[in-house]
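ingest -> validate -> predict -> emit
validate: passed (alphabet ok, no gaps, 145 aa)
predict: started
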Amino acid sequence: MRCALLSLAPQTAHRLADNGALEEVPVSTIQPGGRLQIRPGEKIPVAGLLETGTGDVDESMLTCEANPRSKQVGDPRIGATLNLDAVLVMRAQKTGADTLLAQIIQLVAQAQRSQAPMQRLTDRIAGHFVVGVAVCAGLTFYMGS
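emit:
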């Protein structure tokens, strides 16, 4: 499950330098405050605020809604969602382990590693039940002979 969730996030992003130059960089090198350009059809690499542009974003990976949401300047952007139809510029706010997708991955991994208290109780009761049934079967066999 963890690998499937990680595949939702893009591996690279288009960072805008202070001089206006555009460079493709690994998402892991993006720092909060950095400016990013997201082209139509690209996934939003990190969480941040929209600075320029207006467009629709498919957030169905989080919301399960079929309809895209229109985003305006100042609106928050969620990492790993899909920009549908406009060139957008955003300022990164949360990167790496601080993103919503990273937190979801962490929660899923934690849930997979843990065992619910009710499950532990059920396992203990089932262990005693099996022993009890075996003893009853043995007594029945012994008494019937």
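The chain has a mean pLDDT of 82.
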